DNA sequence: GGTGAAAGCGCG
DNA sequence: AAAGCGCGCTTTCACC
């Protein structure tokens, strides 16, 4: 699996790194590093020759590009039709190494604050005009730190040295190195996903909207169906002007009508009997659809038959991706029919069945839980083992175990899992205890939590002062429990994110190996790199969608499964834990 | 008039 | 007033 190898690649060839960045004269510079540390002389590249240079070197040698920020560096290359196989993203890797508890000598890295930049959206923030007079706020506040990271070649070389030293000092450099490679591969994939886009059927989307809301209304007008349903709510409440879109005011009206709710959220409304409730819930559904994914969203985010959200790799503390713009993390199931392959192509969709519990079973080496998930639905396996009575109970108990539920039905079921799967439960319980103590925990590959903030420490120390009140002590216990739930979930969610990165990184390489097909007119919307081969089109935590020529669909599906197997092997070796997929090949493509 | 918090709800 | 983790986005409303 060459993609994820670091120090040397698994295909037997010595890995070489090519570090690139801006040179002192404003052009580009490149320096190649051999595994033994030998450096080539710096090569200068004219501004407009960078894409050519990268393509040439990529073809000539097995390289890992080292650059400051994939989000900024790779998008222009993709636009120029250049794909790269591997990279090392200095910004993302810095974030991981800086906080990794297993790094023995982090001091040098932590002494390079300019690389400690938070993930940012692909669109650069608008800088204030340089000639604007400083406001009072500017004078009082700390100097504004640059939001980006240095993009110079010299800085990149220095930072790469620091990162290699830090990695070498880690307790398990192999694992942490794998994480750095996986994270960087994820950054490449995120850029490629935005470039390729999700094939999106605007007519189907419009049909879903019209069916629910009525025809598209004039700008600033409410759709017909919303007006009708709103009128029903008003009639049932006996009030001509119910403020449907303002929760605080709606709450007052509901209480005046005798509906004793404390909020206007749907789960609470659903618990009351009143003729106004059904239409009100209906109205809220419609309003949500309209504002979140209505015609305005369609106009803004879908162009040329492609939905192009922005992904933020490493944007979540656990290592999951975040998104910024386009709402890729929250496409409602209702709109899934709008994901539609181009003519002659199809969508291969897969999601992992119960990824997080399976990851937990593998981490903990829990044989009973592994057995419960072998060859079948994990929750069904838990029921078979006799721990709980129904699949629903198994799911509720498992989520409660991983999230730290203490009350309600979920909390009530957790002790049964503790008896049936002590190894798995010990692992999450220990992670929670460590977090509650103020300590740090790590994922399987070594992504660590940051230490608790000053506020948290302050609450804890206040509670141990001689004059601490009962209230102080309660607040400290609550904060400790809160952090414990976070660290409990961190180890599982974060390791699941690592598994998923390995899965899609492996799959990406397999897809790139497909023989190219003739380009169809529609497929060109994916851009020069993606219109001739199967390519990733969507990724969300534990599911993936591949856009593929129909002729390749079955082979792609096999690769998706094979990559899942490879990810399990890469992370957990010969652990018996299986990662079964729910996999579908879409039947309908767009009309010719 | 712009900003930020909170409510509410969509996703895993 | 969600119980129980992690997010983003839209809207309203209080405030400067």
Automatic annotation (TrEMBL):
Region annotated Disordered, chain positions: 449-470
InterPro entries, alphabetized: DNA-dir_DNA_pol_A_palm_dom, DNA/RNA_pol_sf, DNA_polymerase_A
Keyword Hydrolase: yes
Pfam families in alphabetical order: DNA_pol_A
Gene Ontology MF, one: exonuclease activity
Keywords: DNA replication, Exonuclease, Hydrolase, Nuclease
Domain DNA-directed DNA polymerase family A palm: 332-552
Enzyme class per UniProt: transferase
EC assignment: 2.7.7.7
SMART domains from the UniProt entry: POLAc
Catalytically driven reaction(s): DNA(n) + a 2'-deoxyribonucleoside 5'-triphosphate = DNA(n+1) + diphosphate
Name by which UniProt lists this protein: DNA-directed DNA polymerase
């Amino acid at each position: 699996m060459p993609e994820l190898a670091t120090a040397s690649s698994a295909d037997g060839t010595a890995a070489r790194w090519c570090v690139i960045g801006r040179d002192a004269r404003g052009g580009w510079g490149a320096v190649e590093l051999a595994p033994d540390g030998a450096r080539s002389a710096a090569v200068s590249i004219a501004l407009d020759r960078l894409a050519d240079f990268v393509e040439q070197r990529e073809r000539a040698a097995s390289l890992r590009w080292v650059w400051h920020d994939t989000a900024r560096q790779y998008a222009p290359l993709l636009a120029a039709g250049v794909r790269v196989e591997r990279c090392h993203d200095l910004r993302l890797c810095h974030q991981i190494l800086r906080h990794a508890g297993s790094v023995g000598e982090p001091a040098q890295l932590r002494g390079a604050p300019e690389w400690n930049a938070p993930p940012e959206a692909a669109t650069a923030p608008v800088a204030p005009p340089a000639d604007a007079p400083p406001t009072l706020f500017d004078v009082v506040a700390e100097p504004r730190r640059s939001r980006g990271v240095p993009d110079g070649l010299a800085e990149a070389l220095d930072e790469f040295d620091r990162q290699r030293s830090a990695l070498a000092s880690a307790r398990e450099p192999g694992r942490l190195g794998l994480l750095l490679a996986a994270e960087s591969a994820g950054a490449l994939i995120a850029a490629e996903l935005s470039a390729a886009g999700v094939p999106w059927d605007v007519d189907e989307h419009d049909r879903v909207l019209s069916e629910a809301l009525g025809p598209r209304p004039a700008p600033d007008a409410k759709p017909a169906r919303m007006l009708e349903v709103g009128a029903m709510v008003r009639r049932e409440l006996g009030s001509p002007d119910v403020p449907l879109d303002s929760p605080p005011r709606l709450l007052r009206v509901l209480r005046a009508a005798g509906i004793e709710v404390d909020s206007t959220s749907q789960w609470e409304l659903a618990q009351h009997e009143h003729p106004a409730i059904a239409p009100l819930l209906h109205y809220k559904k419609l309003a949500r659809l309209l504002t979140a994914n209505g015609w305005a969203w369609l106009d803004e985010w879908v162009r040329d038959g492609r939905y192009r959200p922005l992904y933020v790799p490493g944007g979540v503390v656990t290592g999951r991706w975040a998104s910024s713009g386009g709402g890729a993390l929250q496409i409602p199931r209702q709109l899934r029919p709008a994901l539609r392959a181009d003519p002659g192509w199809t969508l291969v969709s897969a999601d992992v069945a119960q990824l997080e519990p399976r990851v937990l079973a593998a981490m903990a080496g829990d044989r009973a839980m592994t057995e419960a998930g072998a060859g079948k639905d994990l929750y069904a396996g838990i029921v078979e083992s006799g721990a709980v009575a129904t699949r629903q109970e198994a799911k509720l108990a498992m989520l409660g175990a991983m999230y730290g539920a203490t009350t309600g039905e979920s909390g009530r079921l957790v002790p049964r899992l503790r008896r049936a799967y002590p190894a798995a439960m010990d692992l999450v319980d220990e992670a929670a205890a460590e977090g509650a103590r103020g300590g740090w925990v790590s994922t399987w590959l070594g992504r660590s939590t940051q230490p608790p903030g000053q506020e948290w420490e302050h609450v804890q120390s206040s509670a141990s002062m001689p004059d601490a009140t009962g209230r102080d002590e309660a607040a400290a216990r609550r904060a400790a429990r809160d952090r414990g739930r976070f660290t409990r979930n961190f180890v599982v969610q974060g390791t699941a994110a690592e598994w998923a990165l390995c899965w899609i990184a492996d799959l990406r390489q397999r897809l790139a190996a497909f023989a190219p097909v003739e380009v169809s007119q529609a497929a060109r919307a994916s851009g020069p790199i993606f219109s001739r081969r199967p390519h990733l089109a969507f990724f969300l935590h534990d599911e993936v969608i591949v856009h593929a020529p129909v002729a390749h669909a079955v082979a792609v599906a096999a690769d998706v499964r094979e990559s899942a197997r490879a990810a399990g092997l890469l992370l957990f070796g010969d652990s018996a834990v299986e990662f079964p997929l729910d996999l579908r090949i879409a039947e309908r493509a767009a009309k010719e």
